[in-house]
């Protein structure tokens, strides 16, 4: 797959619509994990066979596209849902450095980058490559969604939605155009897992417990 999204769009051509979601957790040191979930409606058995032949719903083919000595594949699952006639694939991976995702064939054009910024800040970016909208494809029915949880304080970003330190970018095929770059500047938490409010909460709990024990002893 020269461009993973291009092959997904080919499947879209056969079926009429597709959804692609990429969820990523980035730790302060640049390591993290990712879950990719894409699915589509399969109108009939002929389309099911055509989509299956593309390989994007065959675990062995998916593994080949996501394998890298710098990335750990945790799980690859493909399944069909008869309740709504959809077919799905879910890929879960871990990485020690988000830049290492560039070594995955499926992300050959994604240009993952995490660089140092000013005042202990980090600048992250990812490129969403353009995809052809020819062959009568209705770009409004093709959606890509990128959700990033950043373990740090968000300084600036170009996400479409922000909920605290979780940023979401969502576009249809027409909006991608010649490609888009998603980016965020953030100040990493000092520890890999623990933001400051955890310490404040722990201190408050300790004070409450101490007060309770002191009062009980006095009684």
TrEMBL record:
It comes from Ignavibacterium album (strain DSM 19864 / JCM 16511 / NBRC 101810 / Mat9-16). It comes from the Bacteria. The chain crosses the membrane at residues 197-214. Keywords: Membrane, Transmembrane, Transmembrane helix. This is Lipoprotein.
